[in-house]
Amino acid sequence: MGALSCAISERPMNSPFTRRSGGDFNNGCTSDETHKDHSMTSLRTLTLAALCALAATSISHAADTTAAQQLAHWSAQAGSPGNADKGKVFFNARHGGEWSCASCHGTPPTAQGKHASTGKSIAPLAPAFNPKAFTDTAKVDKWFRRNCNDVVSRECTAVEKADVLAYLNALKP
């Protein structure tokens, strides 16, 4: 409390004297103590603000959407509602390659799947069987882009994404 009270309580009283004397005498209050206290307070405030912003960002990205919102988004992009029957056909088709969506996610995609080449386990894709499915927009975009390239050798269209999401959202326990 000494340096802080010195800086706050005696500054107004000593400021005229400090200006005239060049700061050599300050009733025990050095300008370094005053600046150090203000710098520490500013640093603490800045650090706390940065941590709060980081926490808020992490929380908002953890569950920034729902499967229904993703379906609505891609349906709007497509200009028509997703069709679950077409989505099921798309999901299970090989599209001229050796893989389909079902190759890794299973048929139906309600249980844990397994990557066709790496063997890595994959959580159930249907939202009713995996509450985390389609809750992170960045991950949804990333996995659609990556998996569509693997299955159809291009990025899926908005219509295809809406249809697949309609199919996945229709799967219930």
Automatic annotation (TrEMBL):
One protein family per Pfam: DUF1924
Keyword terms of this UniProt record: Heme, Iron, Metal-binding
SUPFAM superfamilies reported for this sequence: Cytochrome c
Keyword Heme appears in the UniProt entry: yes
GO MF terms held by the record: electron transfer activity; heme binding; metal ion binding
Domain Cytochrome c: from-to ranges: 82-172
UniProt protein name: Uncharacterized protein DUF1924
Species this chain originates from: Acidovorax delafieldii
